[in-house]
TrEMBL record:
It catalyses: Dipeptidase E catalyzes the hydrolysis of dipeptides Asp-|-Xaa. It does not act on peptides with N-terminal Glu, Asn or Gln, nor does it cleave isoaspartyl peptides. Hydrolyzes dipeptides containing N-terminal aspartate residues. Its main location: cytoplasm. Belongs to the peptidase S51 family. GO terms for cellular component: cytoplasm. GO terms for biological process: proteolysis. GO terms for molecular function: dipeptidase activity; serine-type peptidase activity. This is dipeptidase E. It comes from the Eukaryota. It is found in: Cytoplasm. It holds the Pfam family Peptidase_S51. Gene3D superfamilies: 3.40.50.880. Its EC number is 3.4.13.21.
């Protein structure tokens, strides 16, 4: 049975680097080892609706690396495009809008099947990482639209919080910190949440999920203190911990 091959990045940009530059080695390795020369890009997280412009941005970058990019929005049969895809990439934007599009176009099960059953590579960044998780309940995004369900692609059985920000002890902001919001989520939800700081990503092969990048990740579990894990950690234990 094919192994799932998933790259989940906290963000598309890191510090002063160009778009996707900090994850370039991982993307190139993932696509090359699968002989995936064509990437199907799903631009539906972009609130402005400029799907052509968003796809062109991705096409320009990946094209320099030797890969061809096709925007799914141009396809007359989007499920057929998913069934033929060599690799799938979903970029950042608004997670609620993205999931709404995926449900409306009946793409959720088609994408999940290609990744889980067929083992083609999946690349997610920001909102694309959120929808790869069990649900989108730990996104930071504004719920600008109702997707009908918070259930997402379930490429991993736990929750993820991209763009995790540590509390700023010098800030005058009196609202909830990211940590407080995740802990609040866990008061009424059982499955853990893995918080990814900027510049980091998870590389998932089968049930191995290795953290790479410049910073620790934080694992939040219900009823337990948040725990820091360094780059190189294999979070595969969460697949056993989160069995249905």
């Amino acid at each position: 049975m094919p192994k799932r091959q998933v790259l989940l990045s906290s963000s598309s940009l890191y510090k002063d680097g160009s778009y996707l530059e900090h994850v370039r080695p991982y993307i190139e390795k993932l696509l090359t080892k699968n002989n995936a020369k064509h990437v199907l890009f799903i631009p539906y997280a972009l609130a402005s609706g400029d799907h052509d412009g968003y796809t062109k941005k991705v096409e320009t970058i990946l094209g320099k690396w030797g890969f061809q990019v096709d925007g799914i929005h141009k396809s007359p049969d989007q499920i057929a495009s998913i069934k033929k895809a060599q690799a799938i990439f979903i970029g950042g934007g608004n997670t609620f809008l993205l999931l709404k599009h995926l449900y409306d176009k009946k793409l959720v099960e088609a994408i999940r099947s290609r990744i889980i059953d067929d083992g083609i590579p999946y690349i997610g960044s920001s909102a694309g990482t959120n929808v790869a998780a069990r649900s989108i309940q730990t996104t930071n995004d504004m719920p600008i639209i109702c997707p009908g369900s918070f259930d997402a692609l379930k490429l991993v059985p736990f929750h993820i919080n991209p763009h995790y920000l540590d509390p700023d002890t010098n800030s005058t902001h009196r609202g909830e910190t990211r940590e407080e919001r995740i802990l609040e989520f866990l008061m009424v939800n059982e499955r853990p949440c893995l918080a990814l700081r900027e510049g980091t990503c998870l590389i998932i092969e089968g049930k191995d999920a290795t953290l790479v990048g410049p910073a620790n990740a934080i694992l939040f579990r219900k009823g337990k203190e948040p725990t820091e894990f360094p780059p190189g950690t294999n979070f595969g234990f969460l697949f056993d911990e989160c069995k249905d």
